[in-house]
Amino acid sequence: MNYLFDLGYIDIQSMTFKNKGELKKANALVNMYLCNFIAKKFLNKLTDQKGRAISQNQYADLCGLSSSTITKLKNSEGYEIPFSTIYNICRHEKYSLKTFFSEFENKYGVNIRY
């Protein structure tokens, strides 16, 4: 069974998991990769929309997030990141979700396993 997303087709059958524990581990890995990808792409040098350096608190405010969320994103282990967090960062960075997820997919692939 295939589902069409903006990023292309995903073969759901090839992504089956033997049990919920395996799925949970794979999801944790995806979340970790997403957080690390965001941290490297956007959080090394925090700037406002005019390119001026700003503090983590100012960046969080501009994204509509808490400073603690930015801290969790910078943690190499990541966390269970809500889609809205990704959206808010991309919105602030004027970065399309299509481009973001395309780059993520190019780096990590579509069938991430632990």
List the helices and strands and how they pair.
Blueprint: E1 2-5, E2 8-11, H1 20-42, H2 56-63, H3 67-74, H4 83-93, H5 97-108
Antiparallel strand pairs: 1-2
Summarize the structure.
This protein is mainly alpha-helical and 114 residues long.
Task: List its salient traits.
single chain; 114 residues; elongated; 7% strand; disordered N terminus; 2 strands; mainly alpha; 5 helices; two-stranded antiparallel ribbon
Structural category: mainly alpha
What is the makeup of the main sheet?
A: 2 strands, antiparallel
Question: H/E element string?
Answer: EEHHHHH
- Portion of residues in beta strands equals 5-15%
Number of strands: 2
Calculate the terminal CA-CA distance, rounded to whole Å: 23 Å
In helices, the fraction of residues equals 40-55%
CA-based shape: elongated
How many separate helices? Answer: 5
